[in-house]
Write a structure and sequence with these properties.
The chain has about 300 residues and is of the alpha/beta class. It has three domains: about 1-75, Orthogonal Bundle (Arc Repressor Mutant, subunit A); about 85-160 and about 270-295, 3-Layer(aba) Sandwich (D-Maltodextrin-Binding Protein, domain 2), CATH 3.40.190.10; about 165-265, Periplasmic binding protein-like II (D-Maltodextrin-Binding Protein, domain 2, 3-Layer(aba) Sandwich), CATH 3.40.190.10. Helix content is about 45%, strand content about 25%. The chain contains eleven helices and twelve strands. The protein has helices spanning about 5-15, 20-25, 30-45, 60-80, 100-115, 130-135, 185-190, 200-210, 225-235, 245-250, 280-295, and strands spanning about 50, 55, 90-95, 120-125, 145, 155-165, 165-170, 195, 220-225, 240-245, 255-260, 270-275. It is globular, with a radius of gyration of 22 Å. The chain starts with a helix and ends with a helix. The model has no long low-confidence stretch (mean pLDDT about 90).
């Protein structure tokens, strides 16, 4: 089985869209479709159901995803073992992070990494930070930048980068039913429209903050991505909670204000995550070692 075919299969399994998957693989849609059909013929099963609008993994396709990820990972490992006599590492590693993290941390890190290891290509994906750790555990990415949860999977390795306060923000200009200063009573807090993350570390800490005060918040919107929270707050839809590092890098930071809320929410511990077993991969280990030097 051609390892490139497995990569094409995984790209489609992640994107569930022939156009986006073909762009990621740098091949035409027809070529991608042909490779998937050939793979299905070789296996004797249908891996995807598709029509003019949707693409979905079949039950057999879901089982094959795990094999394909493991096989791709093993291929990279054995390839580097066989090329161990080479003075320069070569290959590809995948990194996932939020848009904010990509220009807050990755620019400097990747610039230095590229200088030290020019033969290693970086495959960067950006998106909702609340999905970051799940993508590592699912084998979709090799490294990610995210906030450290209270409890962490034992299979994960974590390398701290920085600490960011978690802050309540309000619109700078007065809006109907949305205060521009911190509510002073529990009743006022219960009436304030809140804009919160759908899930993740931030949402867990906000929920706990309200629970300790026995307040049921009025949730106006639950959104994916901290940048979207800043945007909605700046438009006057409600009060939100975001890591301060997101606000500091937002083009809308002058349109919101940080509320002085006591007690403060627990700060974010932001860092790199990977699977402990992935550190056996020389490429991942090289990135990890460079990060150790950065944090000394």
């Amino acid at each position: 089985m051609n390892i490139k075919t497995l990569k094409h299969f995984l790209a489609l399994a992640d994107a569930l869209h022939f156009g986006r998957a073909s762009e990621e693989c740098h091949i035409s849609i027809s070529a991608l479709s042909r490779h998937i059909r050939q793979l299905e013929e070789d296996l004797g099963v249908v891996l995807f159901t598709r029509d003019n609008r949707t693409v979905a993994l079949t039950q057999e396709g879901q089982k094959f995803v795990k094999y394909a990820r493991d096989a791709s990972s093993q291929w990279r490992l054995i390839r580097h073992e066989l090329m161990d006599n080479s003075a320069q590492l070569r290959g590809e590693i995948s990194i996932y992070c939020s848009v904010t993290a990509s220009y807050s941390f990755l620019f400097e890190m990747l610039s230095r990494f590229r200088h030290v290891h020019p033969g290693i290509e970086i495959k960067l994906h950006t998106g909702d930070p609340d999905e970051a750790i799940a993508r590592i555990l699912d084998g979709k990415e090799e490294i990610t930048i995210a906030a450290r949860p209270v409890t962490m999977n034992r299979g994960l390795a974590f390398k701290p980068i920085t600490v960011s306060p978690l802050v309540f923000i309000a619109p700078l200009e007065q809006q109907p039913n949305v205060p521009t200063s911190s509510p002073t009573t529990l009743k006022e807090w219960s009436l304030v429209p809140m804009i919160l993350s759908e899930a993740g570390v931030s949402r867990n800490r906000v929920d706990e903050w309200f629970r300790q005060r026995e307040v049921t918040p009025t949730i106006y919107a639950q959104v994916a991505g901290n940048e979207a929270i800043v945007s909605m707050v700046s438009l006057g839809f409600g009060i939100g909670v975001v890591p301060k590092i997101v606000l500091d890098n937002s083009p809308l930071k002058e349109r919101v204000t940080i509320l002085q809320v006591k007690p403060e929410l627990t700060a974010y511990d932001i860092g790199l995550f990977t699977l402990k077993k992935s550190l056996k991969n020389p490429l991942v280990a090289a990135f990890w070692e460079l990060m150790k030097e950065e944090t000394r």
